[in-house]
Amino acid sequence: MFAVRIDRYGPPDALSAGEVPMPAPGPHDVLVRVHASGVNRLDLLLREGNVFQVPLPRIPGSDFAGEIVALGAEVTDRRIGERVFAAPILSCGRCEHCLRGEDNLCRTFGTVGSTIDGGYAEYAVLPARNAVPLPMSMDWHVGASFGLTYATAAAMLRRGRLLAGESVLILGANGGLGFAAVELARDMGAHVIAVSREPEAKAQLLARGAQAVVAPGPDMAQAVRDATGGRGAELVFEHVGAATFEQSIAALAMDGRLVLGGVTTGIESKLDLKAIFTKRLEILGCRGSGRRDLDDVLVRVARGGVNPHIQRILPLAHAAQAHRLLDGPGVLGKIVLTA
Ligand SMILES: [Zn+2]
């Protein structure tokens, strides 16, 4: 079959496209004919090999949609021809965390497209429990667009206990995770303040549900106070890390929470300890998402409250171009590859 693989770490052109052996499903797996595969920043990080390293070669792609074409010997509750999309988080499915839908706390936590081969291919093997039925109302492109980022954003907003009517400051809103959080927080009834360093993203962020857009930098916290009648934000959605963290803390209201789900710009930051105790702040970490977050997103997408925006559709063979586009300025929305 045709696939795009990471054979070695490096720039986008390090991706190798060509024929690879067809994978065979294990007893509890299904084989999926992939119709669309979403491109995520995680794929770029894997390819670069600086933050994460996985055994190579690896076929990336955490988000994909397609139809089941073969069943493992022990799989009795699925059928050939079923339309499915990949639940990106791998977990045991049996422990106390998994049974509560908190798969991201499972000891066997892993990710499709990094722990096992993913969707940059004509065919992919998935554990049967990770092949989630795709509603008929959703096409392949949409099915390949929300499993990773939207569920991660939903997990962060849940960890941050966002309530309707609260103000939420969303960092990196012109990137995939932040853009998803803007839509989800709007659908949850929050007052959304988006942070974007790209002025041209402002109109799209306002159209997607942000009530205000502020720029990162030394004046960010003041801009947030101005946008909230002087109070500050009840929740800050942080994943940018070192570059913004001090201003993110300063932007919080009394009793505010900051949920941290990434550190894109670095892992060290100054922390204003006085602000923590005088404003009674909470800092909450969050990694990955659970099945309950994916289910929540699926419901919101199915009823139209959230509409993942497909920015570009490219043939799978152009995966390197997709990586360059995602790394460049100005991409709002998903890039989807079609096999
Ligand atoms: Zn588990």
Automatic annotation (TrEMBL):
This is Alcohol dehydrogenase. Signal peptide: none annotated. SMART domains: PKS_ER. Residues 10-337 form the Enoyl reductase (ER) domain. Keywords: NADP. One of its GO terms (molecular function) is oxidoreductase activity. It comes from the Bacteria. InterPro entries: ADH-like_C (IPR013149), ADH-like_N (IPR013154), ER (IPR020843), GroES-like_sf (IPR011032), NAD(P)-bd_dom_sf (IPR036291), Zinc-ADH_QOR/CCCR (IPR051603). The keyword NADP applies. The keyword NADP applies.
